[in-house]
Queue: 2 jobs
Job 1
Amino acid sequence: MNIAVSRFDTFSLIVLAAIWGGSFIFMRIAAPVLGPIWTADLRVGIAGLVLWAVFLIRGGSLGWREHGRHYLVLGFVNSALPFLLYAFAAQHIPASYSVILNATSPLFGAVLAIIFLKDRLTAMKWIGLGLGALGVALVTDLGATRTDTLFWLSIGACLLAAACYAVGATYLKLRASHLNPTAISTASLLCAGLILAPGLPLDPPRAPITGLVIASVAALAVVCSALAYLIYYRLISRIGPTRALTVTFLMPVFGMLWGFLFLHEIITLKMIAGASLVLLSLRFVLGDGHRRR
């Protein structure tokens, strides 16, 4: 079945890409000071509390008894683990690299669709997966950039985080698509905060906390998590997980732009070529599926 994408849905995807592209900038500022666990937990904890307050004002019910297991799974896979991984990576690699690697999420989603949804692995998808791998290779072949163990661990963390989003979107479509998007956003973020909380004493802040760090955490929580998750889960319910994940098409553009404007990060030809190959690979992987439907 082919689901129509309205102009409002398209606009929502662009806004979401701009917001999530900016999240890598805020993590790049906050994580080196707070550490990955504090950065991730403050992000999800504050966002969850903000959404919970809105939910209570509206008189809604989260239905913990009926839906708690879904909230817990989505909180771990879609928030706690990927936010922790990206916060770790933000300490060691520029934001531009993280946002480009994040664009591989639909490729992981295509693989999961083949495994769990019995989707066909066509020649077009093989080409797309190959182009995606080549694009990642170009992005990580950074020449003069430091490429020690922490660099490669950060690259791996970004790829694992991208895979987490694909797992979360697939789970949501299969098991929890009937749930209210606001309830999912609120409860999953609260669960993510509880999951990460036990690790806080293990990784205390490393430097004095400045106003810029506080502002970055606030932006991560309220804009890049609370608001963004409302948009994201609503998009999944309206246009499906595969199309919702195409938000990653635009995120590298915004991520590199914000990194250049606000962190003075250098945009190289290899980065542009790698990002272009990743986006082209998505066209092969997703375009083939859309034609079949």
Note: The CA atoms of residues 135 and 277 lie 5 Å apart.
Job 2
Amino acid sequence: MEFLQFSNFIELAWWAFLLSLTTNLLVIRLSHRYSLFIDSHTEAKPQRFHELPTPRAGGIGIVTGLIFLIFNPLGWNLVISVVLAFLSGIFEDFHKTLSPKTRLLLQLTAAFSAILLTDAVVTYIGLGIELPYYIALPFSAFAIVGVMNAVNIIDGFNGLAGGVVLLILLSFGITAYSVGEVEVLQLNTLIIASLMGFLVLNFPKGLIFLGDGGAYLLGFLIALSGIFLASNYESVSPWYILCTLIYPVWEVIFSIIRKNREGKSPMEPDAYHLHMLINRHITRNNPLTALFIVSMCAPFTLLPILYHNNSWANLTTALLFIALYTLLYRKLIAMERGSSNPNLEIE
């Protein structure tokens, strides 16, 4: 197959945007007419903050725009994996719940197939640490699955997950350009275009939500982009990849620690994620919550581009974000105790 040069890829990205946008407009119309993918505001779920029934199938438009992956050599190898990653969530959006084991199996299959087809395995993780291949392979796969679920967790307000992913894609795209990695640059350009076809409908009005299918798909793509850069270029530190992904990754880790201390299952949803507390006690507005968090994340996502080859600098930046996150969380929990539930026990 003949692949396109980057100059032609810009035009292709424009078509990807239009296809994603048109598809999502169609999804919105059909969803309301036939009650498909509708996320009802009347269902009692702690992570729900919208007031109108809204289709949660924005991933359909995104994955449709990604059909142009076939014109990129890296993307061509990812077609099957992309479909599997998307399928791991779209069934949930159809209100046909997959068992956690089946969902995990689909996600691992997507991750392993992508890694093996692109040879994107992180064996050197920086700071002088080298992993043997038999450890690096599952490590890379589980890292991808972890990021897939992390993006799904932060998908709580209009433009939040999409905005954070957009920052990450910009960071990886600029770094790909700086090291001469055209395939990842093309791939990220195409993903950004397809994502924008969703974001213009999701932010600020929330006409359509990302849904599990879209969240898992975007998490899969950003994780794989980062792993591909780190595994193929010695000048790209794996710690730069972690630093760029630090918000969704730390949200998952922090939530697991927090729920474990409370004696809860990590899989049990609650209303005490950072973005939920920010909405209740700072912004009190759905789209403003996304703007607040995206603005908070921007320096930690974009500045590391300048030192993407420096593991210690990126580790320090990631630790600074963790410190900021923890201090803000403790402040918000103190406000939560004082305003609504004095007996709340969350640290």
Note: The two ends are 55 Å apart (CA to CA).
